[in-house]
Structures are given as C-alpha cells and as structure tokens.
Specification:
With 301 residues, the protein is an alpha+beta fold. The chain is built from six helices and 14 strands. It has a domain of 196 residues: Protocatechuate 3,4-Dioxygenase, subunit A, CATH 2.60.130.10. The strands form four sheets. Strands 1, 4, 10, 13 and 14 form a five-stranded mixed beta sheet that branches. A five-stranded mixed beta sheet has the order 3-2-7-8-9, with no helix packed on it. A hairpin with a 6-residue loop joins β7 and β8. The protein binds fe (ii) ion. The site of fe (ii) ion (FE2) has 5 residues, from β7. Fe (ii) ion binds next to β7.
C-alpha cells in the first residue's frame, strides 16, 4: 500500500499495513490495536496541534522524572486507572486467593533482608505496629520458601525515597523469608494516608481534573513463591477517610483490615511497648502459576 497522499481517513490503514510484516504475532496484535485506538482518540477529540505538542511535552517530562527512586510513568498509569485495569485483566479475583492490586511507584529493588520479627522502622516515630500472617495455598497448606517483600509510608505519609535527609537509605521496607510453616511476623510503624507526588506531570493532570491526590493508608506486600503467581497487593487500614476515593483506584474490600489498637504493655513479640500500639494479622493465599499456553479465561472460576 502506497504511503503517498494519505488523508485523515486513509492514514490508519497505511500505518497498520506498514507494521503487518512483524514476525511476532503478539506484537502485530498489540501495535495494530494501539495505532487504531490512538488514531481513533485523535479523531474523537479532534486533537489540535497545540494539544499534540502539550501531550508530547507532558510525556517527555514524565520520562525525565523517572529514576531508581521515582517512577512517574507508573504513577501516571495508576492515576489513569490503567494499572488497576491491567491487574484485573490478568488476575481475576476468585475464591480464597488473595486479590492483587496496583504495584505503585515506591517499590525499590534490593531492599534489606531481615530476620523474622525484625523492626523495619528503627528510629522512625509513629505508632508501633506488629504485623503477622501466613502464606499458604487455597487449601491452607503453608508454602515453604516464599519471599515476602514489604514497603509502606511513615506516620507523616512519606516513603523513604521522599525523605531527602535520609540520603537514599532504605527504611520501612524489607524482605522476609518465612520458614516451612509459611508464617511471618515483623515490627514497623502504622502507615498513614498520603498524597501521591503532585510536583510532576501527574499532579498537573490531577489538578486539571479537580481530583484530590490522596491514597488511603496501606502496607504494600509482594510475595514470590516457586510454582505460584507473584502476588502484588496492599493491606489497607480499615476506617481510613480515603478508603472510598483512592487516587489510584486500588482498594478492594478483601484487602481492608483492622489495625487493632492496644494499650501500652507486652507486645506480641514479647517486648514491652511503652506507648499504645497496633497489630495487623493478614494471611496471604497464593494462586498456582498458570501452565504454559493456558489462557487465564480458560481456568475454572
Ligand atoms: Fe503506597
């Protein structure tokens, strides 16, 4: 197909035809749909050249803000609901298995590995929080060899990467390796609700849409275990004022849990806590990994 004299009507077919020799069938499916929908969007809103320029600049600035400490593209995807859509497309909620939710922009690779029961928030003020639970399959059988990655915000709603004074130190995050019984426990501080970063392009978008940037308080968990789907999820604090208006659309009923308050005294790990503290108990139920070539939709619901 000639690419000369293309009109606003013929351009889409021409681009699709130009991509049609791609070796990968999946690439062809994705790029064809992307071109179709991108062009449909431009036609739908009758995109002006100023708007096109703004869009290019917006995406450029989004990329320029990304680093090993900040992921503005994930934040943009989260606030547009794309992250939740992709999560739901790939992890249909079923039965006892723990629901997945958005990964978020604050995970960091190579977090410190802690011994069971360790405190990941040493030196950080806040309500002491004792977290415990078990990692099992849907029949309740413990999963040996699972690796649990935990990360969350502090009592001011800030992540370690947002504290310039900590100079890159990893705090309120860590990796735990439960034993054959699948059980884990750790100490930290109770997380607080927080605004997603609004000093970049995503903040611009939220402002233009007259949206608040708040996320309800939560702790992020990621569980990796051989033979099971990677579980990426949060546990949200029951009763949080933003529980029904999460800026990134990540809340699910099954992930809301009570962070139970206790008077000062003996904590679950046997230590004495001189201030009121809270406890969270949450069990994670893993989903067996999909067999190669088996589509998710083909599984029994
Ligand atoms: Fe978070």
């Amino acid at each position: 197909m000639s690419t000369r004299n293309l009109s606003e009507k013929s351009i889409t077919k021409a681009v699709i035809a130009r991509n049609s020799k791609a070796e990968s069938a999946r690439f062809k499916t994705v790029i064809t749909s992307l071109v179709k929908n991108l062009h449909r969007f431009a036609r739908d809103v009758k995109l002006t050249e100023d708007e096109w320029n703004y869009g290019i600049d917006f995406l450029t600035r989004t990329g320029q803000l990304c680093s090993d400490k900040r992921q503005e593209f994930i934040l943009l995807s989260d606030t547009l609901g794309l992250s939740t859509l992709v999560t739901q497309l790939n992890h249909h909620s079923r039965g006892k298995e723990t629901e997945q939710t958005v990964f978020g922009p604050f995970h960091r690779e190579k977090a410190p590995v802690y011994a069971m029961g360790d405190n990941i928030s040493k030196g950080i003020r806040g309500v002491p929080c004792f977290v415990s639970g078990k990692i099992s399959d849907a029949k309740g059988k413990p999963i040996a060899g699972a690796v649990l990655d935990v990360w969350h915000s502090d009592d001011d709603g800030a992540y370690d990467v947002q504290r310039a004074e900590w100079k890159g130190a990893m705090r309120m995050r860590g990796v735990f390796k439960p034993g054959p019984d699948g059980k884990f426990h750790l100490r930290t501080v109770r997380p607080k609700y927080y605004p997603v970063p609004t000093d970049g392009p995503t903040g611009e978008l939220l402002k233009a849409a007259a949206r608040h940037p708040m996320r309800p308080a939560h702790i992020h968990f990621m569980v990796n275990a051989k033979g099971y789907d990677r579980l990426v999820t949060h546990v949200f604090v029951k009763g949080d004022e933003y529980i029904d208006s999460d800026a990134v659309f990540g809340v699910r009923d099954s992930l809301i849990s009570k962070f139970k308050m206790h008077k000062a005294g003996k904590a679950p790990d046997g230590t004495v806590v001189r201030t009121p503290y809270c406890t969270l108990h949450y069990d994670f139920v893993m989903r067996p990994a999909k067999k190669a070539g088996k589509k998710d939709g083909a599984r029994k619901k």
